[in-house]
Amino acid sequence: MKRVMLVFGTRPEAIKMAPLVQEFRKHPDQYETLVCVTGQHREMLDQVLNIFGIVPDYDLNIMKPGQDLYDVTVRILSGMRDILTRTRSDVVLVHGDTTTSMTVALAAFYQQIPVGHVEAGLRTHNIYSPWPEEMNRQITGRIATYHFSPTSLSRENLLCEGIDKNRILVTGNTVIDALYAVVNKIKDDLPLQLSLGKELKAAGYDTGRLVTEEGRRLVLITGHRRENFGDGFLHICRAIKMLSKKYLDVDFVYPMHLNPNVRKPIKEVFGENCQSNLFFIEPLEYLPFVYLM
Fold first, then answer.
1. Which fold has domain 2-177?
2. Domain 190-292 -> CATH class
3. Is there a catalytic annotation at residue 224?
4. Global pTM?
5. Residues 224, 225, 235, 263: which is the catalytic one?
6. Coarse DSSP helix, strand, coil percentages of the chain, rounded to the nearest 5 percent
7. Is 97 a catalytic residue?
8. Where are the domains of the chain?
9. Does residue 119 carry a catalytic annotation?
10. How far is CA 94 from CA 37, 191, 235, in A?
11. 32 assigned to active site
12. Based on CB atoms within 10 Å of each CB, which residue in 11, 103, 218, 287 is the most buried?
């Protein structure tokens, strides 16, 4: 029996690793499955764990007020040393490009434990864009023994970096597996659908518009947190304004933070009154987001 440890710390990681946790746990005769969370995104992480019914075996709970990347890295590295020493897993699986992934991979390397990198091979080839994610995933890629790439392009990136082709497997993106699981969960639960509809209405968008107005369509917009600030978001707002005026039969819905720095470009582009088919709504948890999608 192989002992597999999956480690993650943010909401996106949890969403994408949840299908792997569930699949490994279907085969207890073959795998002892351990889950460790770092708590890099505490509240948002817990929401996803609850959705997928995952109870971590270990929780570093690293987040403290005012932490920076130095603090996060040190706390994860120190915490993983003790856990990896006790468990002696056969392989450690990490995901993507977070500080959690890079630091856990380094901790496993220090104990000569093989690392599997899920969503491997994404590259911009500019270590400062995105920062620190691009360097995080490059470092993780150098450490990893096994590379699970979402696309053939990411596989090519790894081959260009000298990674053995026999250690790369193109798997697709596990976020699709997570999406299907949640869609099926929502489809089979009418009370949940009603509850999510109310939650969306409270956030600022009434899905009833899509039913009562024949032919009305929906464009759901989301962006990386870094694109929610400065010129990047200003360009996005201008594009949304242009499209919303051109396609009046389409509702454009953008869940976003209420931070004044985020709201400023909206007022600059749209003034006090947005188009009637344009909705900047409050941030959504994963379930209502999928329901809206």
1. Rossmann fold (3.40.50)
2. alpha beta
3. yes
4. 0.88
5. 224
6. 50, 15, 35
7. yes
8. 2-177, 190-292
9. yes
10. 11, 35, 34
11. no
12. 103
